[in-house]
């Protein structure tokens, strides 16, 4: 894990010190550490002030074009130094990502993506999983938190789910042994377990988080999940100021829906992280408001954090009532990754102001507004 130099850390912190005008506009999404080759320096260079930064944009399926279009409008309104290389033709039914799209991501090193449908069953693999593997995006980070002004069953929820993104049950190693018998292999390695644990503790350290909780099923999967826990324990010893806990995944789900405020940073293997992140998102306001990012040593893709229903229903697309909040907050995470914290803070503050005021909300948040009406409200709230 790269250690930030004092000058870089000072630069990052100085951009995020603006006090929000109201207590209901507290910033929850903070800095994501950047894995680096050989523990040297961040791979993605610091953006020069005022220099447009190219970013690959994949609108995707369903509501994807609506919510990515919202981001484009807000970025333009902020005059953020970002330009998009846009690929409208990509869809989840493709057998693989087109070469020109991969070339763009490898050139820009940063991508913003709408939802891509994942076919259920059959022989078509998930483009989402393929992207993570090919680009080695071994970190999935989802921040699930209460938005002030948005009522939920639980208060004081601010959970960061850091999920290993490349192996486990998503290894894709399945075959039919004999007709009617399928074998699916779960792969856990010490290398991947240690690096995701390192990322989780580094995130906690940089963001003044107090606790990291490892989620597992080592009481049953004693070797696989046992190796994951062993790796987390070894990394935890390097961070004595951060409390380390462990919890079995089924108990974790029960605790999430009963007392979610007890969790801070959670580090998980691949499948458990998907379940935990979506559960936490549902508790904190739904999939339409939770941001997320996928990060590796060289590339990063930002998208809606919780995957459940992220493509949207046909009527939602037809009536143009998709909730753009999750992807707007994800794009703020992207801006911070690009080391543009002032733009990120401006965007997050505007989004939270709109939610807090409660005048413009889509149906999933109890309102009746269209995507465009919410976007217009966010633009109006910028720097206001």
Automatic annotation (TrEMBL):
Residues 54-378 form the Isopropylmalate dehydrogenase-like domain. Keywords: Magnesium, Manganese, Metal-binding, Mitochondrion, NAD, Oxidoreductase, Transit peptide, Tricarboxylic acid cycle. GO terms for molecular function: isocitrate dehydrogenase (NAD+) activity; metal ion binding. It comes from Centaurea solstitialis (yellow star-thistle). Belongs to the isocitrate and isopropylmalate dehydrogenases family. GO terms for cellular component: mitochondrion. GO terms for biological process: isocitrate metabolic process; tricarboxylic acid cycle. Residues 32-51 are annotated as: Disordered. It is found in: Mitochondrion. Its main location: mitochondrion. Pfam families: Iso_dh (PF00180). NCBIfam families: mito_nad_idh. Performs an essential role in the oxidative function of the citric acid cycle. This is Isopropylmalate dehydrogenase-like domain-containing protein.
């Amino acid at each position: 894990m790269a250690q930030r130099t004092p000058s870089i850390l000072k630069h990052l912190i100085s951009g995020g010190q603006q006090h929000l005008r109201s207590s209901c506009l507290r910033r929850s999404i903070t800095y994501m550490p950047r894995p680096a080759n050989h523990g040297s320096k961040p791979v993605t260079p610091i953006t020069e002030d005022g220099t447009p930064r190219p970013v690959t944009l994949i609108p995707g399926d369903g509501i994807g074009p609506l919510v990515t279009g919202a981001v484009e409008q807000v970025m333009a309104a902020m005059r953020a130094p970002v330009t998009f290389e846009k690929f409208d033709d990509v869809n989840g039914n493709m057998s693989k990502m087109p070469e020109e799209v991969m070339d763009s991501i490898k050139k820009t090193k940063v991508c913003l993506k709408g939802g891509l449908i994942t076919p259920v069953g059959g022989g078509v693999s998930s483009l989402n999983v393929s992207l993570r593997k090919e680009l080695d995006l071994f970190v999935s980070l989802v921040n699930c938190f209460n938005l002030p002004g948005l009522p939920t069953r639980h208060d004081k929820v601010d959970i960061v789910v850091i999920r290993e993104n490349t192996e486990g049950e998503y290894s894709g190693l399945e075959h039919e042994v004999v007709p009617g018998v399928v074998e699916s292999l779960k792969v856990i390695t010490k290398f991947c377990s240690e690096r995701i644990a390192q990322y989780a503790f580094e995130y906690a350290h940089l963001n003044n988080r107090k606790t990291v909780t490892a989620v597992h099923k080592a009481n049953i999967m004693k070797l696989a999940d046992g190796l994951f826990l062993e790796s987390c324990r070894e990394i935890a010893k390097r961070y004595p100021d951060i409390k380390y806990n462990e919890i079995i995944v089924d108990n974790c789900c029960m605790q999430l829906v009963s007392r979610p405020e007890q969790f801070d940073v959670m580090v998980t293997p691949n499948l458990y992280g998907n379940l935990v992140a979506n559960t936490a998102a549902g508790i904190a306001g739904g999939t339409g408001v939770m941001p997320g990012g996928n990060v590796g040593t060289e590339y990063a893709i930002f998208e809606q954090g919780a995957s459940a229903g992220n493509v949207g229903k046909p009527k939602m697309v037809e009536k143009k009532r998709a909730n753009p909040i999750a992807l707007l907050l994800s794009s703020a995470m992207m801006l911070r990754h690009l080391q543009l914290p002032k733009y990120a803070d401006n965007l997050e503050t505007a989004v939270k102001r709109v939610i807090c005021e409660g005048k413009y909300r889509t149906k999933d948040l109890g309102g009746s507004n269209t995507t465009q009406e919410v976007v217009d409200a966010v633009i109006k709230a910028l720097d206001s």
